[in-house]
Amino acid sequence: MILELTAVTRRFGEVTAVDELTLGIEAGEFVTLLGPSGCGKTTALRLIAGFESPDEGSIHFRGREVSSETPQKRGFGMVFQNYALFPHLNVFENVAFGLKSRGRPRDQIAERVRRSLARVDLAGYQDRAVQALSGGQQQRVALARALAIEPPLLLLDEPLSNLDQALRVQTRTELRRLVKELEMTALFVTHDQEEAFDLSDRIAVMRAGRLCQIGTPADLYQAPADRFVAGFMGRANFVPAALLPGRDEPGDLLIRPEELEFTGEADAQFSGVVRDRRFRGPLTLYRIEVGPLDLEVAHRGLGPRVGERAWLRPRPDAELQVFAPQPESGPPPDPPQR
Amino acid sequence: MKRGTSRWLVLPVFGILLWLILYPHLFVLGDSIWIEGAFSLDGYRTFFTSRAELEALWGSLWISLGSVLLSALIGIPLGFLFTRYDFPGRTVLGALAALPVLLPPLVGVIAFLFLYGESGIFTRLVQAGLGLERPPWRLVGGWAILLVHAYSMYVYFYLFTAAGLARLDASAIEAAESLGAGRWRTFRTVTLPMLTPSLLAASVLVFMTSMASFSAPYIFGGGFRVLTTQIFNSKMSGELTMAMVETVVLASASLLFLYLLRRFERGREFHAVGKGVGAARRAIRSAWARRLIPVAGVGVVLVLLLPHLTLLLVSFVPEGAWTVQILPTRYTLDNYRSLFTSPQLWVPVWNSLQMATLATAANLVVCFVIAYLLVRGRFRGKGSLLTLTMLPWALPGTVIAIALATTFSANEPWFGRILLVGSFWILPLAYFIRNIPLVAQAAMASFRQYDPALDEAAHSLGAGHFTTMRRIAAPLVLPGLMAGGLLAWVAALGEFVSSILLYTHRSRPISIEILSQLRAFDFGAAAALGVVLAALMTLVFALGGRYVRGGMAGGPRG
Prior knowledge:
The complex is a heterodimer of chains A (338) and B (558). By secondary structure, chain A is α+β, with helices and mostly antiparallel strands. Chain A contains nine helices and 18 strands. In chain A, the strands form four sheets. In chain A, strands 6-7-8-3-9-10 form a six-stranded mixed sheet, with helices on both faces. A five-stranded antiparallel sheet of chain A has the order 13-17-14-15-16, with no helix packed on it. In chain A, strands 2-1-4-5 form a four-stranded antiparallel sheet, with helices on one face. In chain A, strand 7, helix 6 (165-181) and strand 8 (186-190) form a beta-alpha-beta unit. Chain A is elongated, with a radius of gyration of 24 Å. Chain B is an all-alpha fold. In chain B, 72% of the residues lie in helices and 1% in strands. Chain B has helices at 3-33, 42-49, 51-84, 90-96, 105-116, 121-130, 142-167, 170-178, 183-212, 215-220, 227-236, 240-265, 287-314, 334-341, 343-376, 382-394, 397-407, 426-448, 452-460, 465-493, 499-502, 510-519, 523-544, and strands at residues 34-35, 38-39, 85-86, 282-283. Chain B is globular. The interface between A and B is medium-sized, with 34 and 27 residues.
């Protein structure tokens, strides 16, 4: 483990932003903290960077306790959500800032800045004012600035959220390639599940300050620890087990939309009325009303029309997970954000 | 706005501003080089060879630079303390630190007189405490002026620093830290450069205010010469050509420095990249600092409040009850009663109310139109209109008064001159002109946040012109305009600098009466008038301050 958080807690007045967070990251890993806004993921990142100090618990980096060290001592590179470029400095000076603070010789700085900018495809932009750049370019300058100091750990606080959709998808591919090429350890914060899937070796899902589950994207999708993780990782149908013939245990079954299929009336385990269908190229997404439930079904090709009755069953090869029944009076789980 | 509409509004507005703002100053320029019917530079020759005159020019300049330096030394650390650190009592102390703005210039000066003057409360306290035969100091000369300036003008640095820090993107500072910069390096290479525009703006403001300052040098100057008092003296002793020359020199020096500072400012403006994040305040951790800061804070605030308290105290003192004692011997409400009963006091109050209200009404109408044209209009000469509108801000009140006194001293309608000097109308006119920049800025700020698309949205929802005006334009523009108007009104109510050059006995305003009560040694009556002005000012700031961004920038000066 290069970075280890042990039972780290941070409170702001009444609110416990991070609650006994225990987390370990291996060298060279790309880990994402994922969760809805207000779940404490940014606070966790700021604790690691050194902008906050934990009320309880410890943070070890390469075996050294760092939780009382200043950010500059830790020297983790950070990319901010709003980029935090220095508006009074040009591109070169922004990227050189960290190297100058470290007192590197002039020619070494120039060389490193040049290399850093070339990596993010901004060679030749050295003398531009940062205001004159587009949002995507500013984002890349921020990344180059963090990379220039060759940090032992790269922290990224929702760095893609201010970009438009198309640029976001393209940038995250480049980001992952770059981090892997440089064999860096990176910790990324986002509320976007798709982004997390695309970037991460492992994902840590957080909710209300606590860690819900950590694992590879596939682990989280296929074996979510609870209803919240299941709902946050892709789309999920919760079907009372009693609805299916032959299963009389209490609790709900997690059936992903692609795990449901249309059949003839004879093979069906239940049926419902098609309320909506949306064409998505390879798949068609259905909303089907089954008694009090609204189920989502992902079907290859076009199937029944809106208003028709549809007969359904889980795919025979699907391994369905059972979750304990929801407490009657309990608060509903947070709606997943996308 | 349609082209046609702006054209028939533009011409009259330009006409009024050219006639009332530019023309009188050109007239002064003319009078300074046109002596006894012939062109002559004798006035300037005399000025630049006279020791006394050069002393005054030099005095004005170094007092202004000194005021900038001193105000910055007090205001910037306070701004940092209250924005960046958290400690018990921060909010209350932070608000109290802006207290000096609530004293109109002349009132602040007399409060200082009552407190630190030769026979002031504090001075006598020290004298008695040390058993001295004479007062330990005399509040006279350059350092006395500097002291008063620092007290009233550090607020600009304090507020601008606080505002600049609040606007500053906190993540830029965190970025610097994460890149390995220590506290001092972060401050030097990131915080300070990003704060520079705010600090430059504050410097410009303090410099211009000091150049224009009249009350402090007039009361405390003694033999110390500055241009504003020099102009006053020349005018009073009938040396009109010299008064014109001095006025031109003061105006040119002010405009020149403004131009230089603005040039320096340019190229240092930048806008934050991306959305900023508010800075988190650092809690002060060290135990002794946590205990020391509130104590020091209370001490500082007490020093800031002393002038206000002194003024209030003295306002209860009847005539003759405070002669050689440390504190006055008797207190009554008589002074406040006589504000309404004694014609000697009531007449100036009534005069000021009338004149300030008249001037403000004119300001509201004219500045509304100016702001409309400047923000929404499309016409050639917009830059000149803006310059004309802001010119009275850059010119000291003394200069404006001399210009009006010169231009409107004869009845020559063909030359744009009408006889106003000696009449009631000259003072409202002066107040009107001095407050144009303030009200116009307030109105422009309102118009700027009023997106024309809102009109279109209203029309698309079926609202007619009248409904749009009533439901959209009025609620959006009026609060800012009214707040600007209120500030202008209260500034006019206490106006002193132009008044002293233009008033007649019958139409004397409050400030002049304060001065004559002071001369008659009726300190109580002078203080009571001062308290009324300060109270109105407090009320106006409480009511409308938040609507006028940078309202103080154009606020009462002198």
